[in-house]
Design a protein that fits this description.
The chain is flat. A hairpin with a 2-residue loop joins strand 1 and strand 2. The chain is mostly helical and 252 residues long. Helices cover 73% and strands 2% of the residues. Helix 1 (8-47) packs antiparallel against helix 9, helix 3 packs across helix 6 (99-125) and helix 9 (183-194) runs antiparallel to helix 10. It has one domain (8-251): MetI-like fold, CATH 1.10.3720.10. It has a two-stranded antiparallel sheet.
């Protein structure tokens, strides 16, 4: 056992602390993904607006928050916003006054910029003929979006959304730079106490792997569910023979 690069006793003793760090990582991930997705919808619609200035504003937002490194955004929100006097004296300080809140803001803005483009691409991928046919049937624009465009856009954009979420999870490892005790911070703390670089880092990597693959499994189940409920094309749809109807002694 001495030849192993990992101390099993240390791994066992460190596991509860690493799980607490993973809980913080999961919390930041879920909250940021939810807030970012909510922000992505109006940004996406603004990007597709017929008004040039609205499109330009949304485009600038996307270019900035997609292009800026998340670490820079995190520093900007955590250290920069705290210097604004009006913000410190206002109700928003409940959010920006904590490292956790600043991390949610920075990651949400970054995720919103990426997701706005994913949504836009998925909506543009919906065949225009299906939308026009729905409108020709007298379906309201709201119902066309909810029951025709959005379900198809979800199917078209699911893979890109999965890739963005997986990359996002890996990117949350930087939150420890603003004093948040996430999984990476706990692993680094154990390393500094024990001078064992392998055990805590490998254990943290294993927990990240489990988290990421759980998310991938969830997306796979979601994709299989969408495929099962996919409407078959008319050319490939199985035509069923009508049942025979018995009237008296005759079969029609």
């Amino acid at each position: 056992m001495s030849g192993l690069p990992i101390d099993l006793a240390l791994a066992y003793d460190s596991f509860p602390a690493l799980l607490r760090g993973l809980t913080m990582t999961v919390a930041i991930t879920l909250l940021s993904l939810a807030c970012g997705l909510v922000l992505a919808f109006p940004i996406c619609f603004a990007r597709m607006s017929e008004r040039a200035w609205v499109r330009q504003f949304a485009g600038t937002f996307i270019v900035f928050f997609r292009g800026a490194p998340v670490l820079i955004l995190l520093y900007l929100v955590y250290y920069g916003f705290g210097q604004i006097e009006a913000l410190r004296n206002g109700p928003l300080w409940l959010l920006f006054g904590s490292a956790f809140g600043c991390a949610i803001v920075a990651f949400s803005l970054n995720h919103a910029a990426f997701m706005a483009e994913v949504l836009r691409g998925a909506l543009l991928a919906v065949p225009a003929g299906m939308v026009e046919a729905s409108q020709a049937l007298g379906i309201s624009p709201r119902n066309v979006f909810l029951y025709v465009r959005m379900p198809l856009a979800i199917r078209y954009g699911l893979k890109a959304y999965q890739n963005e979420v997986v990359s996002f999870i890996k990117g949350t490892a930087i939150v420890s730079v603003v004093t948040i005790t996430d999984l990476t911070a706990v692993a680094n703390g154990i390393f500094e106490q024990t001078y064992d670089p392998f055990t805590p880092i490998l254990c943290a990597a294993a927990l990240y792997w489990a988290f990421v693959n759980t998310v991938r499994l969830g997306f796979r189940v979601w994709g299989d569910h969408l495929d099962r409920h996919n409407v078959e094309e008319p050319a490939t749809r199985t035509v069923r023979k009508p049942r025979a109807i018995r009237i008296g002694k005759e079969v029609l």
